[in-house]
Amino acid sequence: MVSILGGGLPPLSVQDMLENSGRLVDKFLQDDRSYLDLSEQLQIPSHAQPNVSGLHDFDYPSLLEAGVGLDTLPELSTIKRMPLPPELTEQFDRMQCNCMMGLFPEIERAFLTIDSDIFVWKYEDGNDLAYFDGLNETILSVALIKPKPGIFQPHIQFLLCLATPVDIVLLGVSFSKLYDGGGDFSTGEMHLLPEPLYSIPTDSTFITAITGTDNGRIFMAGKDGALYELIYKADDGWFSRKCRKVCHSTSTLSFLVPSFLNFTFSQDDPLVQISVDDTRHILYGRTQKGSIQVYDLGREGTGMGRVASVSQQTIVNSAYLTARTVEKCYFNAIIHISAMTSTESNQLHLVAVTMSGMRLYFTTSPFNTPFAGPAMLTLVHVRVPPGFSARPSKPPSNVHSAYHNRGTLLLVESQNNDDNDLLWSLSSDSFPFQKQLMETQVKMPVDGKTWALGELRVSEARIQVASPIGQRPDPPVVVSQHLESPRRFIILTAQGCQILRKLRPVEQLQSMLMDCGGPDAEEVKAFFRLHRLDQACATCLVLACSRSPGDAQVSDWARMAFFMYGGEAQYNFNAAGMQPATIGATPFASSMGAGNLSNTVMYSPGSHSGLATMTPMPGMVPAHMSTPMPYNSSMHQATVGPIPGGLQEVIYSGKHNGIYIYLARILRPFWDMAVTAELQCETPQGPTVYLTSNYSSDELGLTLELVRDLSDFVDFNSKFDTGPSDLVSPAHVPSRLRFGDGALDDHTRKKLQGEAQRVEKISLQHVQELVHRVEEVLGLWRVLLDHQFHTLTAALSQDQQNQLRSLTFKTLVLGGKDICTALITCLIGRYLDDNATVDAISGRLREVCPSLYSTDDATCSKADELLQAARVTQDPRERARQLQEALRLLKSASSPLKLGVVCNRLAAVGHYTGIVELCVAEAKKCDPHDLALHFYSQGEQPEDTQGMQAYITRMECYKCITETLGFLWNAATALPQSPSMPKTPGPPPPTHDPHHMAAEQAEHHREEVLRLALKSTDILFHSALYDWLFSTNRSDRLLEIGTPYLESYLQRRASQIDDKVRALDMLWKHYEKNNNFTAAARILSQLSQRHGSDLTLARRIEYLSRAIMCAKSATSVGGPTASGEFLHELEEKMEVARLQLQVYTALQRVAEVAAINIQVDIRDAQVSLQSDLLDITTLYEEFADRFDLWECKLAIVYCAGLFDSALIENLWQNIINKELSVAGGIRGGDHLAGISERLVAIMKNYVSAERYFPVAFILRHLEQRSCEMGLNQRWVFLAMLNIGVPPAKLLELYDRLFKSRDPFWQTVGKPYHLLTVLNALLSHLADNPSLISPSDRRRFSMICLDAVSSYLVELQAMTADPNSRLLIGKFKGVQAKLERMH
């Protein structure tokens, strides 16, 4: 067969190992997050569809019937029985009215009241008895309250609230030897202050119960059925007392109403219990008759509003309608309510317990509205206690006390004719990750009658868990059992205190190992049957990794059980229809029935349904014995030889998965949490934001201890040892292997089994590497916290700080080696700044995190020390020696340097040339085989991945040099600061700034660095340097460089698509500077004709103009004949380019008045005109003709030398019509002058070319249009005179026009128009004789007189009318003027 670990696979780096194991940690963390909310386990469809559970056997499964080999699981164990202190027994003889006992779990105390006296003692040992006898009335209610912050002195840790029939008092509670307010009340001595802090009258209200909230509010239940609040503050106000009682059941102003008027609000249903949800700020009240009230305390817990009140009858009816198979009487008599916080369920808010043990679950808001406040009280589920299913058993009855919290319910049942109670315990801790709620049931007797029941709240440092999917209820206890202490419950009776411990899976396994004397017992095997193998192995590790001296034997047994029952990695053949393989060659793997580990698995987070086992009992989730390797896109498939068989899948063993699960659970509080948080502080320089650690030193210490224990276990028990050459990734191993049809023979099975175990060993090597890296990162973080973490992060660069802000612990461990190294550098730098030796801290770092602080790091630290010494050394020779030695050490480092940091240190001591030497040497070190040069010379082909990576690495090295040059350049060109007002009075501040560099000094360093850089023979460095000069707009300096690499660089850059114009710009300037005018002209011509919108038409014309200048220079210095031809070609292109510019300008004018649909076409045309230099035919056909640009068409015809009289007359006709159409109906003189100016400007361009300026046609058309529009009769001939038409010729043209007898004038009804114009023309010439040369005036006047005479004859021959007589008079006046000229 072909090995799936063939030699063709590349070896893995440490980073690959970390990422592979990190993915598995993510996977198991996700499995641990796969638990359901309690409402989902109870399978409640919605808040409006209540349902019932507990009626089936699988709701309270019998382990004996499940076939796992266990009769029952130990759930509770009595760890201590402590009688009442003997001093209290004597006090009972003095009782006259009342006595009661209760618990203060917050301070690990119990209390006893006898009449008006109260006694408090430690229930653990019966010591530290405190009492208060300052009251005169019988005590009715007692509560221990957290005080409001900021009101009392710090030594007052709690308030003791006592209610009598007459008054309510608040006593201060303090503790001695309370270390740093840590809450370890078991070590402190309790003191009750002798004088009450507050005391107010009850106004004849009997207080039946008192409860406090986390923010210090005090609520009281009244016998009159009302809810009261005791409000206290530091001082009296204008309208309120320092302490007062407010009734929330009637009115907020009820304290103003006398007590004798409040009797009308009294009812026969006293309020007897108050329960507060401090996470949602909801208060619940229970009355004696079973009604439940709901109050909203507001979003911040400081408000108050009544929401709902539901009677017991309503509750009973709703419960009966939900569970019709249960008799109605079982729902009567609610004896206990318990608020369910958001850590228990997101949807369920309250549970009520009846006398028969029924649990009634309520919600106060619709499902899936997590941020909605309470708006109702609705029954959503009925949980029936054991005894109502088909399995015969006695259900609880006569329950008089109950306690519910975090999925555990304790019921205290009175026994008939017996002075002892019976305790029921119902818990789902042994069945996590189930799709329905499954609970174990345990019954145990209680010594005497129960007076009080509670849970000891252990004050231990819990680590806040970062949840990636928002606020969720607490996970199953199996997830956090390694970190938290087991829960303890206290039962208080007349005989004393009975302290019980709730056993979790780890304590259950510990108990089994101790009871059986080792792991080789049926009970231990049954534990592995009950729990999935990997989960059982993870639980084993909690014990096996323990270093407690008292647990040494149990730890050794747990380690043995881990290897005995953890199984081996296997292949499973699903496609072939084969049964799942058994888990390894364990001593009992082949046994049948209850003895077979593969029979029944009770729970399976993240299980794969594809691997079936024997059918479990109804309701339990079927699961395989271990988790298959998950398939992802990075895992490729491969065909492995001609081996018969079905589809295979590698299944990791329970040992393998157990290690990953345990590691994931240790890291769960940190894994997805950001490593830092921002803290804003006020400093003399203003507000400053520091980065602080999200983890405290204590949290890190606790986690580091667990990780080290696991690391020692893995290292000590390592059985996997493959050589480095065989080290490949499980990601490179196909998780699914395809074979042909048929069965596998034994030999093939053994081979595959060996390969599967080898894959698992490799994965275990990866987790071993991950554990070591986690251990180092945690240790380093503790060292950083010991050295003012916020000051170290402030020394990081801004990019590094931004990177650190975004890091989670996972990304820090898997890919944060660089940031860890940067933090170590800051730590070493802090010692160097203080002129302290780095030997001690270097030794500690090498011990704590050897892979993060290597030998090369120590070498760099020594170089830093030399650079620091060089900074303060005064002797120039010694300073030069220190700098050279530091540079030598840095060059000798075998691993890549953090050039950014190192170059900053070199720059700080002014060793800028050392930066050039170091970076060029580092680039060569990173690419010893010049792969980057080959990649560069071959055109940077992306297929050459190795060359590309080497190229990128070398460019990063060169970047440090260019950044140094940039700094020096800016410093050399910095302007001196202008004088300014001093900030404070007094002497002037010191002018010396150690970081400031004079411009002359910076210029000197810059030239020195540049000179050394240009001496380099590294082609890639020259390319990087030129790129930098190019990108920083220092082209003038780029043109001064005389290296042989510049021309080829510019040619290469010009051949690239990006920024090609700028490169060609630089190249023609380079040629021009070196007198290569022909090459410069050709590049300029190429630039002008370059297609693209990045060049404007004006810029193209500029390039053509420069090209013509260069071509003329080449011709003038005796260039070849081809230069002259090229010059002529350029000049012709320039003429066409100017026509193109004219077309573009005309289109702009058209666009201003065109319709929107036409504007789109015009914009497209303008883009085309800007993107290329077009030929003259294209300009005419696609632009001038298309958009009716008559003036441009005339210019193109003229430029092309094309003559067509009809075409030319048509063009002039359209030009004139277009210009006159602008006038419309406006006859204003200014507007007409503007039209005349535009036409004059156009006609002047062609007046000297008679073929393209048909003056007779133009004159006739202008007069006709002017006549039609009724314009001024003078403007046409004035325009003609303006463009240079001689007066004699103009008179001749008008005379011919008049004598042509064109019927047009009769048609438009203005037969005298031409005579009027002629009269105005002759009058204008007579008034302005200077228009005619003196030598021609006599002859011209004779011509004019003859013309006037003929016009008079014409007028006299016409029909007499006023117009003709008026014109005759005008002509005679002109005749007189002409005669005077004569």
From TrEMBL:
One of its GO terms (biological process) is protein import into nucleus. Keywords: Nucleus, Transport. GO terms for molecular function: structural constituent of nuclear pore. Residues 982-991 have a biased composition (Pro residues). It is found in: Nucleus. Its main location: nucleus. Residues 653-1356 form the Nucleoporin Nup133/Nup155-like C-terminal domain. Residues 992-1002 have a biased composition (Basic and acidic residues). Residues 977-1002 are annotated as: Disordered. GO terms for cellular component: nuclear pore inner ring. Residues 73-496 form the Nucleoporin Nup133/Nup155-like N-terminal domain. Pfam families: Nucleoporin_C, Nucleoporin_N. Belongs to the non-repetitive/WGA-negative nucleoporin family. This is Nuclear pore complex protein Nup155. It comes from Littorina saxatilis. The lineage of its organism: Eukaryota, Metazoa, Spiralia, Lophotrochozoa, Mollusca.
